[in-house]
Amino acid sequence: MRWTIKPKPEQESIDQLSKALGVDDLVAQLLIQRGITNYEEAKAFFRPELNHLHDPFLMKDMRKAVERIEEAINKGENILVYGDYDVDGTTSVALMSAYLMETYPNVATYIPDRYLEGYGISLKGIDFASDNDMSLIIALDCGIKAIDQIKYAKEKGIDVIVCDHHRPGSELPEAIAVLDPKQEDCEYPYKELCGCGVGFKLIQALGSKQGKTIDDLILYLDLVATAIAADIVPITGENRVLAYYGLMVINENPRIGIKALIDQTKKRELTITDVVFIIAPRINAAGRMKHGQHAVDLLTETNLAQAQQFASEIELFNTERRSLDQEITQEALVQIQENREEGRVTSVVYNENWHKGVIGIVASRLTETYYRPTLVFTKSGDKLAASARSVKGFDIYNALEGCSDCLEQFGGHMYAAGLTLLEEQYETFKNQFERVVSETIDPKLLQPEISIDAKIQMDQITPKLMRILKQFAPFGPGNMTPVFMAEGLKDTGYARGVGEGEKHLKCSLYQLGSEPIGGIGFNLGDKLDVVKRIKPFDAVFSLDENEWNGTVSLQLKLRDIR
């Protein structure tokens, strides 16, 4: 692990913010590192308000999109709400269809089959719209690169509104409206919305024309928060407001489908992390193992008994997904070991029999293990399909752009992407990808980094500090859980390995003159000898609360020890 300590802001800035807020230097430092430098910014950070959301009509083509939907409703046209099969796509379709159907019945939903149609707008989906006399498609979390497909829709007399958040290519589709804040000429102030977030801005714009206020739309924010969490977009600015209120809805009054999922867990109050690891994988499992429409059906269901039935089915999909994920990960690890080449900076593996629904998860697991930009390929029809995952600080989308002459299509983000290519191009692409990455990656990015916010003394760790840090939530990219480093630590003699194979570390740490604080280090069992030695050691950790027999105590969540 590479430990990197963030630069400490100038003491004058810390003093000014500390005085303005009535907080100590440590809290002021953490806020400045997050771009918060004055009282008003701190107020917006700690107390997000719905009125902080931007005017949706600032987004390019928003007025065109609203006018076309209003025209469709006034003329009684059939509308198809179309979205990708992952969490962002299915929550987007649930949000848009549920909103429209509050007042208008002629709405249907469509999620493409991951295996028969693949990602994005498909010709089959357009044919479905044509066959069912649908003259307007609202495409969510996809469409920005669907040049040929949208041209095909236009030839069939079908208009398309694109609501996407992926990076546009050099050419835009001939849609009635293209809503994507990442367009260069789009002046929308916040660029990091997820697909469901763009969909929410569209219903916000529609609602404003129908006399609705933002308070009337809060009930949709459980879907938006789920998509924000699952898509790993920055939880800053507008996303922070949406996630903050969305979490409140999830914990206080979630839609029936999300309630059915939560009821299967033992959680009383969910954090963004819980949404990432508990809710999102189950929604995703529908599209991975069966069909994404199952997720939409769950998220739009209004009858609790029926929703519980849907949730039980999705739980089975998720169990099957976990089993396949573990099996394929082991096979991929063996393949990497058998084909390792000295100095190689990428991991690229392929098996035509691997399940397409889990290759993205496997790519993430391989990236965690070998810390290399990683591609996992499988057979998809007469082509090969892959999921790509990257390491912190390296833009894998740009790397794929450098290999675009080998690809049929690709799309995604800095850290995650998908692609297809012809089988005969596989070896050429594999070599070209290695060359492009090796020429552009900073070698230090191939070593996992722990980014440390601040050094801390153990006597600074108090219940008051923990109460303040909890108000930094929701956490995520752009606002990660604060990470601290403490030096000169010793264990009270309590240290031991715990869990299967004693792979985790349990200890109680102190500095000279400080009270001991319990610590847990997952997968740090191999550090037990360091902790038990007489010589002091340093540790990196975040702060947590441990509840045992009704008693809550502070706990160090250890990240690394040296």
Automatic annotation (TrEMBL):
It comes from the Bacteria. The keyword Hydrolase applies. Residues 78-228 form the DDH domain. InterPro entries: DDH_dom, DHH_sf, DHHA1_dom, RecJ, RecJ_OB, SSDNA_exonuclease_RecJ. Residues 452-560 form the RecJ OB domain. Gene3D superfamilies: 3.10.310.30, 3.90.1640.30. Transmembrane segments: none annotated. Residues 349-438 form the DHHA1 domain. The keyword Ubl conjugation does not apply. One of its GO terms (molecular function) is exonuclease activity. Keywords: Exonuclease, Hydrolase, Nuclease. Belongs to the RecJ family. This is Single-stranded-DNA-specific exonuclease RecJ. The gene is recJ.
